[in-house]
Amino acid sequence: MEGNATRDPVSYVLTLFGERGSAAYIGEAVTQTEHALQSAWAAERNSAGPALIAAALLHDVGHLLHGLPEDCAQDGIDDGHEELGARWVEQYFGPAVSEPVRLHVSAKRFLCRTDPVYMQRLSDASILSLRLQGGPLSPGEAEEFLNNPHADAAVALRRWDEQAKVPGLKTPGLDHFRPYLEAARAQSAS
Ligand code: FE
Predict the structure, then answer these.
(1) CB 3.0–4.6 Å: which of 90, 126, 162, 167 could bond 98 by disulfide?
(2) At 76, is the secondary structure helix, strand, or coil?
(3) How far is CA 187 from CA 46, 51, 54, 93, 142, in A?
(4) What CA–CA distance (Å, rounded) separates 13 from 22?
């Protein structure tokens, strides 16, 4: 499979959603693929560029790449999916896509520190994983987070991520987002 990823990472990752994306999204009423599509669609409707739309689509790809069960947070395991996903994404799509992916858990911890309304609206599964992820950032950590050049993109992605858990919501399909993945890949190569 890795060989295909090197030759054509866009087709590879879209196939990965097709093959593994029907798994439930940790404690939510949507599948991994539905969650990814709702996130990417929110990014598109908010006029994000190709790299951030690609990041929204791929932000949880680490869940598809690793072999842990999707509900491992319920067993007290933090799966580190953001690192795993970001490392894979970085090889093919560059930092404008991989860094918001890497930071999307930190962005949640940042928002829990800085936005009480955001924290109140977290789903039960997300509150459970928050504890395993280290809880809200400390004030010092929140300041440090903002110094990252990809912080704003990660926070935007995180808000779309949180909205992308609507059972049965109709979205465009995976192929709709292929051109954004191709464009993000082309940008990273130029
Ligand atoms: Fe997510």
Answers:
(1) 90
(2) coil
(3) 20, 8, 12, 8, 30
(4) 14
Q: How far is the CA of 69 from the centre of ligand 1 (A)?
A: 16
In CATH, what number is assigned to the domain containing residue 153? 1.10.3210.10
pTM: 0.91
- The alpha carbon of 128 and the centre of ligand 1 are apart by a number of angstroms equal to 14
| 159 burial via Cβ count (<10 Å: 0-12, 13-18, 19+) | middle
- Dihedral sign, CA of 79, 82, 85, 87? negative
Eight-state DSSP code of residue 174: G
Range of the domain at 86: 2-189
Q: Specify the number of domains making up the chain.
A: 1
pLDDT tens digits, one per residue of 76-109 = 666 688 999 999 999 999 999 999 999 999 999 9
